[in-house]
Amino acid sequence: MNSNGHNAGAEYLRGLTPGQLADAAGQLKAALADIKVEAVRRELSRAEGNAYRLTLSPPSRQTRLDRARLEADEGAEFLAPYLYEEDTSWVMRVSARRS
């Protein structure tokens, strides 16, 4: 926090161009990937820091529903009673650009 009570990092980010924001996000994503690799190498499932906690879940199998196929087989009317809307938050995805 600076003397105005604002996050100094946020003020730095406000001065970046959109492209610089994208690059900064990519660098953070790469750093997080490196941290994940190291945590897995150490076989950590949890780590406690002074301000943050890190938890890792091992790979697993999930059951997914092929909605398009079910709707094609049974019709939209069949699915309607099982569908609901849910509010979401902003999502930010970061991916490397291909050269």
Give me a quick take on this structure.
This protein is mainly alpha-helical and 99 residues long.
What does this structure look like?
43% of the residues lie in helices and 6% in strands. The chain is mostly helical and 99 residues long. The protein has a domain at 1-57. A two-stranded antiparallel sheet has the order 1-2.
List its traits.
99 residues; two-stranded antiparallel sheet; 4 helices; extended
Question: How does the SSE layout of this entry go?
Answer:
Elements: H1 8-14, H2 18-41, E1 46-48, E2 53-55, H3 67-74, H4 76-79
Antiparallel strand pairs: 1-2
| Secondary structure tally, helices | 4
Question: Helix coverage percent of residues?
Answer: 40-55%
* Number of DSSP-assigned strands: 2
* Assembly state of the chains shown: single chain
Roughly what is the average pLDDT, rounded to an integer? 90
Rounded Rg: 21 Å
Q: Low-confidence spans: pLDDT under 50, at least 5 residues?
A: none
General form: extended
Most strands sheet: 2 strands, antiparallel
- What string gives the helices and strands in order? HHEEHH
Give the amount of beta strand, in percent: 5-15%
The secondary structure category is mainly alpha
Strand order of the largest sheet: 1-2
Question: What is the terminal separation in angstroms?
Answer: 38 Å
